[in-house]
Amino acid sequence: MMILRFPILLILLNVLAGCAAPSGDFPSKAAVSSDPYVSRFESSEAKALYFFAEAELKATEGDFEGAAEALSRALELDPHSAFLRVALAKIYLQLNEEKKAVRTAEDALIQDPSFWEAQLLLGNIYFDRGQNEEAAVHFRQALELNPDLERAYLHLGIALARAGEMDQAVDAIKSLLQRNPESLVAELALARLYREIDLTVLAEESYRRILSSRPDFEPAYIELGEMYLNKGMEEKALQIYRQALVENPGNARIGHQMVRILISQDRLEEALLELEAILRHNPQDLDARRKTGLIYMEQENWTAAVEVFTTLLKNHPGQHPELWKVRFYLGTALERREDFPEALEVFQEIPTDSELYGDALSHVSYLLYRLGRTEEAISLLEERLGEMVARPELYIYLSSLYLARDQHEAGLSVLNKGIAAYPDNAELTYQKGLVLEGMGESARASATMKQTLRLDPDHVEALNFLAYSYAESGQNLEEALRMAQRALELRNQGHIMDTLGWVYFKLGRFAEARDALEKAVGMLPADPVVLEHLGDALRALHQDRQARAAYEQVLEMVPHSETVRRKIDTLAEGE
Q1: Per residue in 191-224, is it b (16+ CB within 10 Å) or e — as a string?
Q2: Range ranked top by mean pLDDT from 182-186, 193-197, 204-208
Q3: Which end of the chain, N or C, is less surrounded by CB atoms within 10 Å?
């Protein structure tokens, strides 16, 4: 719906056209004022002009109902005026009476088929409705009557593009450029059309023509950069953004675009330099400081991150949700720096109505545990679970606190409550499986892990758990192999590679077991279980010297392992 304003009399009538009423359709003010007042006022046209002026005044005051009534009375006095009908149609639009507006504009064309303002108004109404083919018909007719309507060319091009007539849309915009080669709006519309129909080279040429005449025109830089990004041309996007910053060094929007690209490419040091440039020109840019802190966190530079977030909060006091995010980041950085008391204080300041409260509560419980206040952490979570709609993670955290105190039944009970609240949550079910395994109930643990996979067939840790369990028991080894391979495909980690190697070993595929276990040792060089598995595979391949070396490394980590000592003794007996 178009929104009209009426600062002066003729704007009401010529919002898009900028033209006066056609001669012979309605008397001009000059014509009225040239004759004696009394004789002209008694005429129908003069009375109509009076009501028209009254309508204009009421519209200026926002009384559109009154304006419509005044224009209706004017039309009663001058029923053949297309000019008055268009004015009334525009008032109907202000009143959201679109059907009346269309009907009135169509009546105006019946009175005067050459009245281009009516064609333009109908085109705009259909355009706003999304009836693009109908809009295009009226825009074309308006342009036939008045070829100088720049906005009509633009809307015609957009309507045709929306209707899928891209070639005709391009032709419409080109027609405008032929009439007005200096039209920045037309050139921008043409660039957007070329971009829409994937004519990248032509779009680039249009954008660069804009920038050659208007080097400070931000939208062209933004859109050309986005086009390059969509094409995977990150370096060209960075190049055009750098050009933009030469023209306007303080343009934070362009700077942030560059930072996003550099972060996505893991070019964190360059991103930090760009953020410093943004902050030199815009010291109060909260987002730039926040991103700076997050980059430091990504680099695990916790001290620098703490400094940035602390300074940011000092400079931006308040309760804005974005500041609670900053406080959450500060707490996380302090926690990772192992400043547990300070981190606890920060997390505790996040209010219960914040969307971050659930995450903050998890950190609070963890920090209380690390500070030796486990009972307090348990009490807090128990209280909160009774007061709020808990998130699945809170059940998991509370369960882990009970497990830390060897209260397995209590931990299991909490997880069962979580599963009752979230029966489709695979992570809760997986954690229950781990608890059952820790309680020595392997059969129930395996059944629970299978339930986890029914909820999430690609749950990596459940796949790995079952594959390793099958390998340990020597059962379902082909299924174990498929599970281990799928888990490794989803997540290439050392403990999963170890599972794959151990399954190969149990299948008697010792060479493949050795290869997988050597990779696992490379990922987990300090894990005695993985080293022992490798030793077993090497011994099965009769590579006794290498097997002994692997076992001896295990004994360096676990000196009292009688099982490994016996394996070394067995190797010695065979020499």
Answers
A1: bbbbbeeebeebbbebbebbbeeeeebeebbbbb
A2: 204-208
A3: C
Q: Is 533 exposed, middle or buried (0-12, 13-18, 19+ CB in 10 A)?
A: buried
Assigned token pair, 35: 């004759």
What residues have CB less than 8 Å from 222, skipping those under 6 apart? 253, 254, 257
DSSP 339-403: -HHHHHHHHHTS-TTSTTHHHHHHHHHHHHHHTT-HHHHHHHHHHHHHHS---HHHHHHHHHHHH
DSSP H or E segment with residue 111? helix 98-111
527-553 pLDDT, tens digit per residue, is 999 999 999 999 999 999 999 999 999
How far apart, in whole angstroms, are the C-alpha atoms of residue 81 and residue 26?
7
Q: Enumerate residues 6+ apart whose C-beta is below 8 A from 62.
A: none
For the domain covering 1-129, report its CATH number. Answer: 1.25.40.10
pLDDT in tens, 2-21: 332 333 222 222 322 333 33
Q: What angle do CA 31, 4, 24 make, to 5 degrees?
A: 25
How far, in Å, CA of 101 to CA of 85, rounded? 9
Q: What are phi and psi of 98, to 5 degrees?
A: -65, -40
Is the sign of the CA dihedral 141, 143, 145, 151 positive or negative? positive
Question: How far is residue 90's CA from residue 6's CA, in Å, rounded to a whole number?
Answer: 11
- The amino acid occupying position 522 is G
Q: Give residues with Cβ within 8 angstroms of 340, minimum separation 6.
A: 334, 367, 370, 371
* Distance, CA of 295 to CA of 432 (rounded, Å): 36
Angular region, 476: left φ>0, alpha ψ -120 to 50, beta rest: left
What is the CA angle 503-485-457, rounded to 5?
115
- Whether 13 and 86 have beta carbons less than 8 Å apart is answered as yes
Closest CA to 501 of 484, 479, 478, 525: 484
**Tokens describing residue 201:** 């080279």
Specify whether the CB–CB gap between 94 and 64 falls below 8 A.
Answer: yes
CA–CA separation, 369 and 518 (whole Å) = 37
For 397, the token pair is: 């955290």
